[in-house]
Write the structure tokens for this entry.
Amino acid sequence: MLIALALTLVVLAMLSLAAPLLARAALGVRVVYAGTACVSLVFAAGGIAGLVSAAEALALPFGPPWGAMRLALDPLSAWFLLILGLSGIAASAFAFGHVAGTEAPRLLVPYPLFLAGMALTLLAADGFTLVLGFELMSFASWVLVAHEHENAENRRAARLYLGFAALGGAALILCFGLLAAGVYAGAGFAALRAAPPDGLRALAILLLVVIGAGSKAGLVPLHVWLPLAHPAAPSHVGALMSAAMTKAALYVLARVIFDLAGPAQPLFWGAVLMVLGLASAIMGALRAALEEDTKTLLACSTIENIGLITLGLGLALAFRAADLGALAAVAAGAALLHALNHAMFKTLLFLGAGEVLYGTASRRMDRLGGLIKAMPWTAGLVLLGAAAAAALPPLSGFASEWLLLQALIAAWRVGDLAFQIGAAAATALAALAVALAATAMLRFYGLVFLGRPRSPRAAGATEISGVARGALILPAALTVMFGLTPGFLLELAAPALRLLTGAGAGLSALGGVTMTVSEGGAGYAPMIVFGLLLLLGGGVAWFARRQAPGIVRGPAWDCGFIAPPHHLPFGDPATQVSAAGMAQPLRRMLGKTLLAAREKVEVPPPGDTEPARLQAGFHDPVLALIAGPLPRARDRLTVLAERLRDFSLRQCLGLGFTVLLALMALLILLERP
Amino acid sequence: MSILTGLVTQLLHLALILALAPVLTGCVRWLKARLMGRRGPHPLQPWRDLLKLVKKRPVLAENASIISRAAPYVAVGVALLAAALVPSFARGMLLAPFADLLLIAGLLALGRFAMALAGMDVGTSFGGLGATREMAFAALAEPALVLAALIFAILAGTTHLDVIIGIFQEGALGLRVSLGFAAVALLAVAVAENARIPVDNPATHLELTMVHEAMILEASGRHLALWDFQASFRLTLWLALLAAVFLPFGMAAPGAGPVAWVLGLGVFIAKMAALAFALAVFESAIAKMRLFRVPEFLGAALLLGLLGAVFLFVSTGLS
Amino acid sequence: MSFGQLPYDLAHLFGGAVLLLSFVLLYQRRISAVINAFATQGALLALAAAWQGYVQGAMGLYVTAAIAFGAKAVLIPLALHRLVRRFNLQRGVDPALGIGASMIAGVAFAGFALLVVLPATAGQRALAREDLALALSVVLLGGLMMITRRNLISQVIGLLSLENGLILAAVGVAGMPLVMELSTAALVLMLAVIAGVFALQMGESFQSLDTESLDTHRGEGE
């Protein structure tokens, strides 16, 4: 299977090479997207194969003799490869369905490379290959983010993305360098595993991998590029970035911390991950509830879900440090399950938003509305995705959320009082993040699909058909299926959980269709819940509709509407709730402290005929930091550095000599016994 | 044999909830009226209203979509299922293995989502207003509920409702400070979830002050009957939950006979009456809060829950 | 000596109720509500002291209970209500730190109290440790109220609530000599009387009890 996967990487490279030629004809473009869809299918199959069969390894003849390029497919890689494959199929199918004539080469060439980079990151078995895949992934996605460079906003987004990608890449290179520092036979994972770091080196590795992988995944405070870059890319690429690229970054995080850094880490590593995860979850959910652009909202929701996954990983690490293997398996299971579920519903939501963009040419929620009439299929499928993102039973989001809360509720068994207090606060904050996400999803769905159209374009939207509709149906069907069979998925993921948490002691407690947590027997049976809901709801419906069948249509009541003006036959959009209006309660409750939300009312003096103005807004404090004090500090440093130009000959020689002496002093310090 | 008794108790419980819920709402209304010096409507008035409404066809707005037609059934189904999971007069019902506190919280969230979608469907301003306020309050009430579940889970070892009630019934826990804090937190969440004073006035006619009522302004006929039903089911569910967890005496053990059921039924009705009286007194005694004070109220409940959990860690670590 | 025994449970419950009222004190926005909450806290403290007197069989604790009830639940609140009415003061509390932030700080302080008391009292009875942690939390919350309120009456109530915590700690420990409790109580009561006189003076001169307004008049003495 691994050889087949390696061959698919070659296929992707060839597709990318041929893309400038193929871009000249619509058929060629379709060939490229069909090719990537088939490759993604192979990825998904490879993922499943890697989970059910034994691990494989492959050494390729590239690279220096002491460090040949190594690929491996073990259960952890296989799980994330499955995620990549499923998202790739949907995204490629969507792009295939929306091909209309030729395409610019700069959109077509990087797309297979993007997939190849992610797959290479997941399949890598040595540090060089992993960093190579990571950088390829970043570079290809940057080209795709910058494709509409005529727009100044997109240029800014691309600049910010490139800066963070460079920072992340540098941090990862340093991290792997430190990991391989004690090993003299290249950076192969087997060799790295045999020589785990400790002490200060381990702490530096933790910090660097959090910066490197965390910035790509979108952990606070390195998340500022995500809500700008993901919307700027084309819809199918945005979906892949949110669903798969963030998971690839989390894979790197999990691989380094759980696998390569040794079998046991101290408790505070887990606490660090938990804190970062919680901060991301709350900031992401709150921003998602306040944003006014559909794709930015979905990108902020990605940040929230990544935060929850990181919370699960941190909790698993803490349990492993406290020798509670069964609970560590539960927490890691929650994290992996949520990674898969999020990939599915986020792909669905992003592709749905892309569909809305195609149909109405607008991403702003203040220009949309009432699309359930014009685009019923999209509305129905996106409702499934929004309900899953809001963690409502019996869909997939609730299953992973339930498991995560169970793991958090059991966190008090760790025994350290400070950790217990932190875990109780973490439980409350995780529940807060999930409830905020539900608010954000309701607002998204209600403003875009329900109500009345707010602009003529929204009234005249067209529905999708064909392959693009299939591209939305696939993740929706998987969301429903994963929601009804979470136990089966956990059994599938069992080898990966064993890899993450050592000997998988509590895995036998996770049953087939239901999920039970071993300690105490709390269980969740989604099929029963779904069946009972159908039974009860259907029974009530049958009984009630028999009494007075049919409905009557009339004008909306709402204390009496006035007749709509002539030029707006669908009703005055101003009498509906707007995006800012729906965000107001949360903006006032939590936005003032966390996101510097401000409302300003300017009332003109009496007698003045100017209208009063209400300005309400917020901004991300981290972005303000990057845009404000950091550039000023950089300018000051630049001014100081300019002084180096005025050095005379003697001073230049003296500078070089001083540096040499300092390095020698460092050597003396390090060589002391 | 035990499956049969479980099925019988489950069906009896469902019938009891169906019959009792509107009566409970009517009793609370009647008690409030009496406390304010009015005669008040008959406690069975909600049943009469519902039976009258069910026979009328709903009038839907011209641009209402299928959401307005489907949401009432979803909400009622969810509320019925959640109420069926909380035991009233007997433990060990058929659905008891699936009764999990977090699942009940999730089901309530699903019902709330359906109601908010129905509120936003027609595109009226008050519907959106009610929907956004309801979800914002829920965002703060959910963590308090989860913290109360945490406190119960630490004391009983699981979030499984039947097991929790069983362990509380044994009485080995005594009166704990943490349980007191959890009770305060859960009472605040119950008040917020059921749209009672001081969070929301269920009898208001001023649309700008509405939270819950604003979302169902457009409903009529059998849809309105279903929304009122689901509100009654939720109230019954919450009062039954509070009674089962904090006043667990009198419930029939799993597998007991009809005599124990009758006894449990009597105790349950007495508990419901007492809780309804307490609710009526509480609602009559204090005024509705300003809208933007509600987050402080719910935040205080959340912090009390956190404090209860912290003190529980201490006691569990020591004893 | 464990949970499930009525004497210790009730003592615990009273301590928890006093802590709950400290939070209620932080939560209120109107002066009269703050004074009423303080009166309730005094009454609960008297109940706790009386119960401890019953359980430990110490007569002195009944005296403490009577003094606490008479002073904290009746006399001081009456005097404060009269002060507010006499100067027709603004009825808001005017916090320097927001209500939400004060509550979060309160929970953090309670956590601190726990983390401090537990290692320091290792080896004692479990219930005594938890009682001490409750009392220290009440003390810290009284201090929090003093520093985050601008109104003089709120600050005085914070000081008295702090002393409530000290009395709660003292009655929980068996064998505390009565003389120590009475002298601490007398000291704090004297402080309260001085604060009352100060409030009268300030009210007459400035027509408000906002202590921040004093800042502009620093240095004016003679």
